[in-house]
Amino acid sequence: MSDASGCHRPSPWHPLASFRARAPRTASESETKKIMERIETDVVIVGAGAAGLTAANKLKDAGESVVVLEARDRVGGRLWTGDVDGAMLEIGGQWVSPDQDALIETLAELGLETYTRYREGKNVYIAEDGERRLFEGEIFPVPAKTEGEIVGLIEKLDALVAEIDPDAPWEHPRAKELDEISFAEWLGTQTDDEEAKLNIGMFIAGAMLTKPTHAFSALQALLMAASAGSFSNLVDADFILDARVVGGLQQVPLGLAAKLGDAVRLNQPVRKIRWNPDDLAEGVVAVTDSIEVHAKRVILAVPPILYSRISYEPPLPRRQHQLHQHLSMGFVIKVHAVYETPFWREQGLSGTAFSPYELSHEAYDNTNHGDTRGTLVGFVSDEEADGVFALSAEERKAKILESLSHYYGPEALDPVVYYESDWGSEEWTRGAYAASFDMGGLARYGADLRKNVGPIHFACSDMAGKGYQHVDGAIRMGRLVAEQILNEQSLAS
Length: 493
Hints:
Layout lengths: L10 E2 L14 H6 L4 E4 L2 E4 L3 H12 L4 E4 L11 E4 L2 E4 L4 E2 L4 H10 L3 E3 L5 E5 L5 E4 L8 H18 L13 H5 L3 H8 L3 H16 L8 H9 L4 H5 L1 H4 L2 E3 L5 H8 L5 E2 L6 E4 L8 E4 L3 E5 L1 E4 L10 E3 L4 H8 L1 E3 L2 E8 L3 H4 L2 E6 L7 E4 L8 E8 H7 L4 H16 L8 E6 L12 E3 L3 H5 L10 E3 L12 H22 L1
Parallel strand pairs: 2-15, 3-4, 3-16, 4-12, 9-20, 13-17, 16-25
Antiparallel strand pairs: 1-5, 5-6, 7-11, 8-11, 9-10, 13-14, 14-15, 18-24, 19-22, 19-23, 20-21, 21-22
Helix pairs in contact: 2-11, 2-17, 3-17, 4-7, 4-8, 6-8
Family: Belongs to the flavin monoamine oxidase family.
Pfam families: Amino_oxidase
Keywords: Oxidoreductase
């Protein structure tokens, strides 16, 4: 079986056999089963990612009964540790940074260990003329004028970010103004140095929102930086990409799911949600192809772009219809290349590489804990990703490996394992890393993004403040929505 990348799709790798895909019913079983299975519970959660599973556990610990319905044949959502030709690869999210308190607390609760990303040696930067330059520290080896412009832009952005509440960026006095100018246009008002603009834009556009800088607003960029504490944190790879989990980050949702047992139901895409706005005491019904779950409340713990995959009776209010249409996913290819040895270390390289002029705009040493083989991970984002997907799988692989070879030398051309994570082709994700608003959307609709509609609540990393787009944000949102529901229950009793 292959995905859109032309590479073998991995089997989900994890130690908890109970959360492997359940075998589908045979046609005869499906035909003879005339009555939907009916389940009654306090809260039904749609989506078995970090947000949904965190909410489910918090509610369960408070004495509420829960059922989690997951469309995929695995738990984890955008966290997926896969086995590809004998190599363990982090298909989805993978890094832990020191400020991600919610994630770090969860790792401790689950007894999971972390290890520091390899970073010894020099980093690589490719200039516009193709010159390969080695450097240390956070600032790229660019001409002195450009370096000054980059430092100045970082200082200006840090000052603005300090004024932004990541949970309510729309409350900034200049929110509307900043949301009506693209980040590309804003950068142009600050400097005429093209290399400086490209490099600053790369950290937000290519590395985070995975959209071109003309496609999102300055306010959206400030939210992205505020979610990490500062713009300086975003440009510091040793901070934002600090550590990894031994065995893979998918062990977080796997561990959370294990605590819920049979309450997690796989292969159950929710088709319909019914509720009575005139009598909230009737609760809500979530309907799959084979199950009806009757509950007091439902949590949609999936990316906002998937809300429209569900039919609602009655329909969601106009406000929700509109705001959800102003959110879209970015697009990035995460490239994994495994080699017999981490040969770049022998050259005195850290594995960290950047260039706004390369097809792969950034790359890192991604070698697994205790592995004798070496792994590089690179990223091809937004419009560049569009371009390579117009090629055949082999042509695309050749171009991407050629880009990596510009950083690491000709040995990068011949990996023993090669794989492309293409979340844009995933039926239940449809992009990466997360959803962001179009121009003007954040100031206009942001305040309504988390608001519940009757018994329908929303939680995912796409709507987090701190930890936006990261598993830390997903955990925070899972906790937040669970607390909201428990508070509502308390007030009603």
